[in-house]
Each structure stands twice: as structure tokens, then as C-alpha cells.
Amino acid sequence: MGSTATTANMEHETLARVYASSDVAATRALYDEWASTYDREMADASQNYVGPALASACVLRMVGPDDLARAAVLDAGCGPGLVGLHLARAGARTIDGIDLSPGMLGVARRTGAYRALDAVDMSGPLPQRDASYAVAVCIGTFTQGHVGPDAMAELVRVVRPAGFVVATVLASIWETGGYAARVAALVAESRAKLVSADLTDYRQGAGVQARMVILQVL
User: Fold this and answer.
1) Where is the Methyltransferase domain (predicted)?
2) Triad 213, 215, 218: Cα angle to 5°
3) pLDDT in tens, 100-156
4) Which CATH class is domain 50-217?
5) Model's pTM, two decimal places?
6) How far apart are the first and last CA of the chain?
């Protein structure tokens, strides 16, 4: 019991530090520091981070197993590769990952799920070409103190027409952080169709929910 409580306290402390960070360099350093234990801590019952599994299931449902096997997928904000692993198990064969943290990318590289991994600050334009992916996933990145809503438009830009963007947005900032408005603008500009933005479990053990945003690019 004592060990579990200690682990939970460490997790909450780390998350609090990450959420409180507003400086890119400081955030990068925090994630580099967290990289070696992130998977274990987020899988702990106190967090039960189900977002990656649920998002991968959404991708499979939208694309289908045959097309997923042929699709080029961008895992934006890939962290240590949790989403990539789920997608690979679902049949994805071509996954590129980008993340702010070189430490997280090092862990992701060891999964063997990725074709390429690159350090990218998603608060600016992405280096990927227009319409270069069939699917872009972004899980756990649109959260407190992290990447702002304009990055949603960048994800739409790098996905080809008829492809999909699947992203989680922390429920508590969906409206106040401008994400709902940015998605509405993409729809109004005829750049994407909103398939759904359902409230779903995210860090289930902590009772934290997110919007699971599914956009089809036009």
C-alpha cells in the first residue's frame, strides 16, 4: 500500500510540474527527465492512461485494417511511443513520430514501431509536407500548458484529403483553451469535417477525461 501511494504521489508531482511549465526549454527538460519512467507511471492504477489505446481503436475504426496497413501515419507528440505501439499492433506499418523531447524519442525508438522519429516543437509550423499522411494522431499533447489550438490546423494540413486527424484535448481546456473554436473554424473554412468530439476516458484512474476529436480532411 505504501509503495502504491508513493508512486501515485510521484506521478501527481511530475504531472503538476509539467502542467505548470510555460517555457519550451523547461518543458523539454521535464519530459527528458520523465522519459525512463513515463510508461510505468502512466500505466499505474492511479492514472490508468487509456488515451493511447482508445485513440488507436478510433483510427482502426475510421480507416479499416486493410487501409491502415497501407497508410502513412504521423504520431504527433508521440512521447515514448505508446500510441505507436498500439497502432503497430492494430496493423499499421508506416508510422512517423515527432516529439519535443529527445529523451522521449529515445524510448520510442526502442519500441521498433516507427519508421522515423524527429524532435519537433509543435508550437510552430510542422516540417512535414502538405497532404503527406493518411492519418495524423495527437494524443496527450493538447493539454494544460502544452501545445495550443493552432497546431490542430497543422495536423489537418499534413493529412491528405479524405484522411483523418484523431486527437485528444483535455476536457477542462476544450472550450477555455480555444480548441473548440479552432475546430469550428476549420469546419467553417471547409478544411475538415468534424466526425465527432466525444467526451471520453483519458487518465481513467485519476478520473480525467478528454475530448476525442476526429476530423476528416476535405
Assistant:
1) 73-163
2) 165
3) 999 999 999 999 999 999 999 999 999 999 999 999 999 999 998 789 999 999 999
4) alpha beta
5) 0.92
6) 52
